[in-house]
């Protein structure tokens, strides 16, 4: 049948992934660094994803396409949820890697004989830090101020430990290279089971980094909790916007 459907210009697409969480049907995925339509019958042709694309790579066209199938969408979303749950459980079990075991530790304190300047001391108080690996029920998330960090930020911002990390629990990730839908599900579970006092999201100025902010906001909305939320943008030269 001839109907309206999403078309993605592969030349314009930079793989930022902002369109993925905006598609309620889960019809768009990132493949080899580019957004693609998973299947014609998953796209309703309404174009909710259009406004999220900073490159104007998405538009609505009319062409021969399979009819939109709500049953197929529900099956697809259910399978995606099951995959997410399986991934969360896998990472919660540390994936067989001893280095992923959850640990809490006090930040090192400077002594009078310590020759290392205070601003050079690590402020990390937990392990692991990767959002894909952290157990959502870890004790270091209870009554914690949570810092959600795009993983390029600590490289761009020199005083990350002193200005942002100190006194906070942290999770890091890359919304362009990883599955942002998984991030949303993981953060939703984290907010549900842990007593988070505040949320600070650190992102880079590049468009693809908006995905980690979107994941955090959607997770917060899904959890139904009123948690203070702050977004900070870091420039590629380390400036704060």
From TrEMBL:
InterPro entries: 4Fe4S_Fe-S-bd, Corrinoid_activation_enz. Coiled coil: none annotated. SUPFAM superfamilies: 4Fe-4S ferredoxins. Residues 4-33, 34-63 form the 4Fe-4S ferredoxin-type domain. Signal peptide: none annotated. Gene3D superfamilies: 3.30.70.20. This is 4Fe-4S ferredoxin, iron-sulfur binding domain protein. The lineage of its organism: Bacteria, Pseudomonadati, Thermodesulfobacteriota, Desulfuromonadia, Geobacterales.
């Amino acid at each position: 049948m001839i109907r309206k459907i999403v078309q993605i210009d592969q030349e314009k697409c930079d793989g930022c992934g902002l369109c993925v969480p905006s598609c309620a049907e889960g019809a768009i995925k990132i493949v080899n660094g580019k957004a693609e339509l998973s299947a014609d019958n998953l796209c309703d042709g309404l174009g909710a994803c259009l406004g999220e694309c900073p490159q104007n790579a998405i538009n609505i066209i009319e062409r021969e396409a399979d009819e939109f199938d709500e049953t197929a969408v529900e099956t697809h979303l259910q399978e995606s949820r099951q995959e997410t749950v399986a991934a969360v459980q896998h990472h919660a079990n540390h994936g067989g890697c001893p280095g992923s075991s959850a640990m809490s530790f006090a930040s090192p304190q400077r002594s009078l004989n310590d020759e290392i300047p205070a601003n050079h001391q690590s402020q990390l108080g937990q392990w692991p830090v990767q959002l894909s690996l952290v157990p959502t029920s870890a004790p270091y998330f209870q009554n914690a101020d949570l810092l959600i960090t795009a993983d390029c930020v600590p490289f761009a911002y020199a005083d990350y430990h002193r200005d942002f990390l100190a006194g906070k629990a942290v999770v890091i990730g890359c919304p362009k290279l990883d599955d942002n839908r998984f991030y949303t599900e993981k953060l939703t579970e984290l907010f549900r089971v842990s007593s988070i006092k505040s949320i600070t999201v650190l992102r880079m100025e590049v468009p693809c980094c908006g995905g980690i902010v979107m994941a955090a906001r959607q997770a917060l909305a899904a959890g139904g909790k009123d948690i203070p939320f702050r977004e900070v943008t870091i420039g590629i030269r380390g400036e704060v916007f």
